[in-house]
Amino acid sequence: MKLHAIVSKLPLITCLVAVAASTPTMAQDHDAVRVKSRATALSFETLTPFEHPWAIEVLPDGGVLMTKKPGRLRMWRNGALSAPIGGVPKVFFSGQGGLLDVALNPNFAQNRMIYLAYTEAADDQSGGRDVSDQRLGVFQDLEDGVVKGLAVGRAVLGTDRLEDFKVIWRAEKTAGRGHFGGRLAFSPDGFLLISSGDRQRFEPAQDLKSNLGKIIRVRPEDGSALPDNPFAGGPDAEHDVFSYGHRNPLGMAVRPGTDEIWVAEMGPQNGDELNLVLKGRNYGWPLVSAGDNYNATPLARPRTQPSFEAARERFPVAISPASLMFYEGPIFPAWKGDILVGALNKPGIVRGIPGPDGVHDIEHIETGFRVRDMAQAPDGSILVLRCGTAKAVHFYAWYRASNKTEI
Questions:
Q1: Distance from the CA of 338 to the CA of which of 128, 138, 246, 376 falls in 20 to 30 A?
Q2: How far apart are CA 78 and CA 157, in angstroms?
């Protein structure tokens, strides 16, 4: 059945709607609002205010871990937000950096192991101040000269603190700038995937001796490289590199039932894209792009170098993708198997159907707010981290999406 035929049978609700509390851990405040999608009915309700959020991760018991960029990890359970969980590593919070993603070990039910991605300052701060790069246009902060980089650590989640925290992987550290990447995922064979941004340095994305601008694949126990990684064993590359030529991969997920690794990548001006990550492939940044630099200097288009792996979808208008997930729940049957991308610059959720030759039936769902992260709750509803600004004060709220339309 065509998706537009499904939505045509649903009643149009223009007033506020109540969303059933089918998940006992989700509080209700009855301020749900309807959002339009051609594939299914949608409504959103606010669950809790939440400052500076970056990521959410659903636990097997329905509790939800949430990261806050200043360096706080909290738990939402039974309708309440916990105090900050202890044992979180020291985080350097500035600009795009801070406490970023959180992920569960595939055997979390047995070992209670979680993983955190965050930015840390270097012990040695003698690297000097940052310098301007015209290609970045106005998007640079030369006041931030701190030498810093992405780090990933693991710990056991206790009742109210992290136990035995250990850093298992670090990216190359540079002065200033953003583009940390910082998303975590697990491949079907149980290995840890890390998205590492180019730190707005451009050229390291093509340098196999750098771990910037890469998708990384390591053992979750100690962060060591896998012997079957594409560049393992050679002298001219980092052994943990799985793919390269990436700019700022801010969404990453494995498609359920497959070994496909999908990445939502924030490109240059009007160069955002979705990539299917293949072992050892080069995705072209900064040599080619569908967009241009922020100072309007042109970049070679992808077709000019066909040896690079092509994006599965390129967005002609910047959406600033911040997260990526696949939907598999029962609440939105029309979305089963679909890819969902959280968008910052064109606020909302981008939905599409992934296929062997690209992503089809793409629609932009206008939520009215910027979407930082999403996760599927046990009942099939979707948890959404909202971010925005007003009066120079940051506002954030956490939402749950449902399709219940009764008043």
A1: 246
A2: 18
Give CA–CA dist 374/362, Å, rounded: 18
Alpha-carbon dihedral 20, 25, 29, 33, rounded to 10 degrees: -50
Is the pTM of the predicted complex or chain greater than 0.85? yes
pLDDT grade for 402, boundaries at 50, 70 and 90: low
**What are the residue numbers of the active site?**
179
Summarised one tens digit per residue, pLDDT across range 95-108 is 999 999 999 999 99
Count CA atoms closer than 13 A to 246's CA, side-chain side.
Answer: 36
3-state SS track over 85-148:
CECCCCCCCECCECEEEEEECCCHHHHCEEEEEEEEECCCCCCCCCCCCHHHCCCCCCCCCCEE
Tell me which residue of 47, 22, 19, 50 sits closest to 33, measured CA to CA.
19
Contact 66, 75 (CB under 8 A): yes
